[in-house]
């Protein structure tokens, strides 16, 4: 299962020996930021339709290191657009030089990759070795869903085929740890919460000391006949 959000708690579960266990979990924003990486690692079919170089397509097209070289005719009949790109790192150690091609189709305004090519190095590289991916779709309920992807790398072809498709659960309780027989962990204290607790504790002690001093001062002023 991909990452799930239960209010402020993000988690991922996997089935292990007919029982569910946590695979990834956390409360911080860093957990939610890791969703693209989790998607890439867990679901090759979905990632092939939306990611390039393990980067979401929407983020890749905005990289300042990427230059869009030329518009070409698509090679796949399902493709609507084809662009050739070159990645030239703007700073040392950031990204590796690379080049390639993407083809995509728009589905309700959402771009879905149909074909992608990635080759490390520069376009002048002779006989480059890289990765070529093709994604095939099927329309269901008015939307395109990937049904198969083929990835060719170093002469090895990896074929990923979609299994069953089920309607999403509308009951929010389905997306809670309890639905998998798991306990939701307590949210760890944040640094600012700890400092506020210390400040409140210190303030309480200071107030108690001042109050005691006032009482002792008042008692010492009382005259005993």
Question: How would you explain this protein's 3D organization?
Answer:
The chain is of the alpha+beta class. 24% of the residues lie in helices and 37% in strands. The chain has a seven-stranded antiparallel sheet, covered by helices on one side. The longest helix has 30 residues, at 191-220. The mean pLDDT is 79.
In short:
With 225 residues, this protein is an alpha+beta fold. It has helices at 29-33, 35-42, 44-50, 57-60, 191-220, and strands at 4-6, 9-16, 19-26, 51-52, 55-56, 66-71, 81-87, 98-107, 110-120, 131-140, 143-153, 156-161.
Major sheet size, sense and barrel closure = 7 strands, antiparallel
| Helicity level | 10-25%
Instruction: Report the order of strands and helices.
Output: EEEHHHEEHEEEEEEEH
How many angstroms separate the termini? Answer: 83 Å
Shape: elongated
Task: Provide the gyration radius in Å.
Answer: 28 Å
Overall strand count? 12
Low-confidence region ranges: none
Strand order of the largest sheet: 6-7-8-9-10-11-12
Q: What structural class should be given to the helix and strand makeup?
A: alpha+beta
What share of residues are in beta strands?
Answer: 35-45%
**Tally of DSSP helical segments:** 5
How do the strands and helices of this protein lay out in sequence?
Layout: E1 4-6, E2 9-16, E3 19-26, H1 29-33, H2 35-42, H3 44-50, E4 51-52, E5 55-56, H4 57-60, E6 66-71, E7 81-87, E8 98-107, E9 110-120, E10 131-140, E11 143-153, E12 156-161, H5 191-220
Antiparallel strand pairs: 1-2, 2-3, 4-5, 6-7, 7-8, 8-9, 9-10, 10-11, 11-12
